[in-house]
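User: I'm new to structure prediction. If I give you an amino acid sequence, what do you actually give back? Let's try with this one:
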Amino acid sequence: MNHKLSRIISAICLASLASYSFAQNSSLTRATELRSDKLPSSSVISQLAVGSAVQLMSLEGGWAHIQVDGKSGWVRASSLALNAGSSSASNVSSGREARGNVAMTLGVRSLGARSNRHALIIGISKYASAAVPQLPGAKVDRESATQMAQAMQVPVSNIAYLEDDQATADGIRKALAALSDRVVDGDRVFIHYSGHGTRYKDEAAGGCVEALLAYEGTTNAVIPNKEMAKLLEPITNKTDKLFVMYDACHSGGIVNNASTVRTRGLLNGNDEGALRPKFAGISEECAKPVNMKTRNLLVEAVAQKALPQDIVHISSSRSDEISFDDEKKGGLATEFIRDCMLRDAKDLDNSGSISMDEIKQCAQTKINDRMKGDPLYKAHNISLTGNADFVPAWFSQAAIASTAPTAVALALPTPPAPQVTAGKPSGNGVAAAPVSTPVAALPAEPTPAPVVAALPLTGEQALKRLFEQRDGKRKVTLTTNKTQLKIGQDTLDFSVKSDKAGYVYVALAGSDNQSLYVLFPNDLDKNNRIEAGQTMALPRINWKVRAQGPEGVNQLLVMVTDGPRDLTALAKNKAGPFTASLNNAEGRAELGSLMTNSQTASTAICSNIATRKTNPQCSDAFGAGMLMINEIK
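Assistant: Good question. You get back a string of structure tokens that encode the predicted 3D arrangement of the chain. For your 633 residues, that looks like this:
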């Protein structure tokens, strides 16, 4: 879709990341250790003195990848001289960029912590019961889970930890209750558990049930999925997304000796550290897989009236598998999901963002490679249920075909300034008909422009990914009398109704399979406030939009957000009164980030929990609906 009249051709040059240097000079503010990986437990390459000059290559999850004296490694980002008040740090690449084949323009590097994000990280490496094998890697998982939480914009002050003897059954229950007290409507929560999983016989459930094993390590210290879902219910009812990760397994049927330990390289050349199964068999009857319906966390949560749209649940293995703990790098699932979230996952569907499903696929490949050739164990399979399209942070991936710069032309027509006479507002806040009513044309097919290598991106994919980030508890109803518009004749008309008050945003993916616009609010109409139960008719009379071709399907995304969005960063890309997204992955990621983050939530006032409980604008949550509009001759 494009607006007719004069066209402005905007050429976008994407230089190959593989040939670009992201290094930046810096120095150390304190003595530190150069490590082989971004973990406190990783091996030390060398000792670095305060004041040492270094080259900063990338920032990733609180760690910095540097080069110094011909050596490359990791140090804590806090040990570097970075001016918080300048753009110094923001100009440094993320780990995703530094890999050379992926660009991450937002996410970890550019998006700051938000007071409406929370995390609870539980790790049990030592159990009270001598019969339960120890898991030294669970301590490492704390660091990895923290990096994941920070990538999802959770402030350090909003991360709670339970370790070892703190993580008793009652301790876990109390920590979840305290988390619920901190969470308000529209917040987002990440929960990570690293420890043993188990199965035990439950007569009431009619068989064996899966559970997490608390610190006590006995049958009296388990939290089955049914109870966990009940504990999470008050949190689920408030959050727009609840992301729970279990790095534990729920069945030990293929483990004859749960304390089996492999030393490095003894049985598998891929081993980097001793591997331990993350299963404790406290019930002989249930220690082996049984022919039963699995009752995982999502199943139990839905039974408590939760919506699958609002839950993301990852388990490190299926119900009849075991997963492994690496004593040096932690649980394999946690290690690899961390790495894929921060740098390695790819935008497989070209939506301009990285989903949990794409992160899972990346991590599974790494687990398969790690376990390849093992004579005793097969690779365990990560299980992802709930909203697989959830985007934990807005990453973008550029399509790089060579080391030469690639020019992509995007045609954006600009209509003349319309002659509008402001009308007197009517009772419902919608402007009355102006004396002169301009009719903006739905965009026509762009004039062909020289293209070296077209990016395989569509606006439809970007909008559908945005739609999947909605809070399913918020209801947005869209109605239209016409789902087919005759080119050159019919105008777009639809209405929006929301069960919650908020701000209406309308994005349009054009029938040309390339264009992407924010239609509303726009330069002619900025009044996008809607009250609960109100019906808003759009487009309003002073900015009617007419079908202009080409033939095909237009996708319309309508969001009703709790808090207003700041889209000024997109103002540089205009199509008449409307805002246009760049036709590349970076543009999709920028649009996704701005549309899913409330402008108010980033202000200091929202750091106060009392304010957040009474001010919905501190929430990033939104409801959404989509319409398909066909353009026909």
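You can read the tokens as a compact description of the fold. Here is one thing that stands out. The chain has three domains: 7-13+405-632, 17-98, 117-386.
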